[in-house]
Amino acid sequence: EIVLTQSPGTLSLSPGERATLSCRASQSVSSSYLAWYQQKPGQAPRLLIYGASSRATGIPDRFSGSGSGTDFTLTISRLEPEDFAVYYCQQGGTFGPGTKVDIK
Amino acid sequence: QVQLQESGPGLVKPSQTLSLTCTVSGGSISSGDYYWSWIRQPPGKGLEWIGYIYYSGSTYYNPSLKSRVTISVDTSKNQFSLKLSSVTAADTAVYYCARGGDYYDSSGYYPYYFDYWGQGTLVTVSS
Predict the structure, then answer these.
(1) How far is B77 from chain A, CA to nearest CA, in Å?
(2) B5: which residues sit within 8 A by CB, 6+ positions away?
(3) Nearest neighbour of B112 by CB, restricted to A1, A37, A50
(4) Which phi-psi region, left, alpha or beta, contains residue A27 (left: φ > 0; alpha: ψ -120 to 50)?
(5) Counting beta carbons within 10 angstroms of the beta carbon of residue B56, is it exposed (0 to 12), middle (13 to 18) or buried (19 or more)?
(6) Residue A59 in this model has a pLDDT that exceeds 70
(7) Can you say how many angstroms the Cα of residue B2 is from the centroid of all Cα atoms in its chain?
(8) Are A44 and B49 an interchain contact pair (Cβ–Cβ within 8 Å)?
(9) Residue B77 carries which DSSP code?
(10) Partners of residue A54 in chain B, C-beta under 8 Å
(11) What average pLDDT values come out for chain B (127 residues) when binned by 10 residues?
């Protein structure tokens, strides 16, 4: 069973800054099947990225995904106020524990 | 625009069976292009995939829950359902239904992504 580790646990940044979130898998995974989600309090998760680097419908281009093998990254180029949330990676039936991006 | 809506009891007693239904609108479960999943999230914690079903009735479950989970589909009502037996307090969570795609590798079928989600329903296990 693949285990996904996300770092950091919390990322404190200011609006306009760049956010870099990491997702590491315990064994090599096909990058074709790595997804990222955003979740705000009281809301369901929202699909951001699938296939490691493809943006889902309606997702702004400030969100980008990259990586392969065991190391994947979600980058938010310039944080907007609405981007402060928890972000999860997912591979197969496993989710990572999440990274919280909060306002510094 | 596809919409999903969970329904069912918000309170279940320990050792009993949790039952939820997801009603899909704006799209047909029978289209065959997607699978239909259940995912849960204990309060203040992360996400756990429970299992998914195709319109044909084929199911795939999280091994950690497989012995207690049954997912079924009713294409005539455009609904799919979750039953989780022998519940304990550890099963208290917000339960989401979701649509997604899957993939196949040498180990079997797995969820690929979840693109549409219900709003979630909190189920508390307590006497």
Answers:
(1) 24
(2) B22, B23, B25, B118, B119
(3) A50
(4) beta
(5) exposed
(6) yes
(7) 16
(8) no
(9) T
(10) none
(11) 96 98 96 93 97 94 96 97 98 98 85 96 98
